[in-house]
Design brief:
Layout lengths: L10 E2 L7 H16 L7 H22 L7 H27 L7 H8 L1 H4 L4 H14 L31 H30 L10 H26 L4 H23 L17 E2 L3 H7 L3 E2 L4 H6 L6 H6 L8 H14 L6 E2 L2 H15 L6
Parallel strand pairs: 1-2, 3-4
């Protein structure tokens, strides 16, 4: 698994004068000033938040109050809907809040970002893995944990190649479905010990002991409301509750993986290797070379997955709420063309998944670079 230390901190090339990043920042600032809008959430975002929250909590209330005890099929369907609710809240609400792009107030962002704790996750771990490691060191082997899911999947050309990897484009989707279940049971504890060892918990201003107590209490709370209460009050057999719970997380895990992985694990990604702990490109150019957009014209896709189909814009401007990404994409694409830089975009979600599958197949055969 990835390990980061002070000796391994990678530095990107200095941006220099009249850089690509300076140009897009200036043009984006001009856009917000010209349109007289701020970079945070708007009315549409708040309405969507209510919709996403309802997709999770309304089915849960129907389950725990026994309203669906007359129909095993509807009971199971409610769990599946909650799985989609996890995706919607995670991609559209929690994600923006933990990036500080939902509200202008830090404490309010933190409060809403902690909704992840209610969904079985742990926001402190998430912010370290996603905000710090993934966003800073995108596709850098040993630093970006999003491309280091363990020995069963090879998501970087610099990882050791195993014989079974030649089948990973087939079995990866099943492992994706198990991702959430692994995260809420084992992974959060593993991450805490790793981040403590690598002195990353200081970013969250918490000791390992306090973090372990906090995490354990949150897990007890989660198990209590998501399993114990339905067992006590839903009027359904325990096996159906367990089945619904597992199905909920499998839906969420598969969907979230299919949203995030095609953004970076693609044939067009560069996967550079630092030389003397340095990358030859600037950070902004590195993001362009290792990120792919998809389905830019689909309003439904963009609405449901929190604008993460505009992954380039998100990586360049994570502090901006995703409702603004479609407008920013026109600015970023035009500026990239002016600087003769690639702007990777696929027209549909299906094409993005297909290319990701092809990349998994390639990585399953390709010898380490």
């Amino acid at each position: 698994m990835s390990v980061i230390s002070k000796k391994q901190i990678v530095k990107f090339a200095p941006k220099g004068a009249d850089s690509f990043y300076d140009a897009i920042k200036h043009r984006v600032e001009e856009y917000f000033q010209r349109e007289n809008i701020n970079t945070h959430a708007n009315r549409k975002m708040r309405i969507k938040t209510i919709a996403m929250m309802s997709m999770y909590f309304v089915p849960y209330l129907c389950i725990v109050t026994g309203l669906l005890s007359f129909s095993p099929l509807l009971f199971f369907g409610a769990w599946l809907l909650m799985g989609l609710g996890i995706v919607g809240i995670g991609a559209s609400v929690m994600h923006d809040s933990n990036h500080g792009s939902y509200f202008t107030n830090h404490k309010t962002n933190m409060m809403l970002g902690n909704i992840l704790n209610v969904l079985g996750g742990y926001s402190r771990n998430w912010k370290i893995q996603h905000n710090i490691l993934h966003h800073t060191y995108t596709n850098l082997d040993g630093l970006d944990e999003d491309i280091d899911p363990g020995v069963l999947l090879r998501m970087s050309p610099h990882k050791p190649l195993k014989k079974f990897h030649r089948f990973q484009h087939i079995y990866a989707w099943f492992l994706y479905a198990l991702m959430n279940l692994f995260w809420i049971t084992v992974k959060d504890y593993r991450l805490l010990f790793r981040y403590h060892k690598n002195d990353l918990l200081r970013k969250e201003k918490i000791t390992l002991r306090k973090a372990l107590i906090e995490l354990s209490l949150l897990k007890v709370f989660y198990v209590g409301y998501i399993l114990v209460l339905p067992i006590m009050f839903s009027g359904m057999p325990v096996y159906q509750i367990i089945l619904g719970f597992v199905a909920m997380h499998m839906v969420a895990g598969l969907a979230l993986a299919c949203i995030f992985q095609p953004a970076h694990v693609m044939e067009t990604s560069e996967y550079p290797v630092p030389v003397d702990n340095r990358i030859e490109n600037t950070w902004a150019v590195h993001q362009l070379l290792n990120t792919t957009n998809f389905s830019p014209k689909s309003v439904v896709t963009s609405w449901f997955i929190g604008g993460l189909n505009f992954q380039i814009e998100h990586h360049l401007f994570p502090h901006v709420c995703h409702v603004h990404y479609p407008a920013l994409s026109r600015i970023v694409k035009k500026t990239a063309e002016e600087y003769s830089l690639p702007y990777q975009v696929l027209p549909t979600f299906a094409e993005a998944l297909l290319m990701h599958g092809k990349m998994l197949k390639l990585l399953g055969k390709q010898q380490p670079a």
